[in-house]
Amino acid sequence: MRGRNLRFFVVGLLLIMFIGVTSAYACDVRLVTACQTSPMDNIVMKLSDISNAHGEIYSESNYDYALCCDFTGSYNCGTNKVLGLSGTSNAHAEAPGESTYTTNVCYDALECTDLGSCNAEYPIEMLSLSDTVDAHLAQFNDYNVKICCKLEPNLYWADEAEYTITTPQGWPTLPHTYKMIVENSGLPEGPADFEVYEDDGLIGDDNIRVGPKTISGTVDANGRAVATWEVTYADLSSASGPVDEERDEENTEFEFYFKVGTGESNFLLFTYELGLCDAITECGDYTQAMCVPDLCEKSGTGTTCQKDFCTCEWDASCEQVGHDFPNPDNNLCVRCIDNVLGDWSDMLGGITNEYCDTSSSCLGAGGTPLSNSVSCTTD
Question: What pTM does this model have?
Answer without folding.
Answer: 0.57
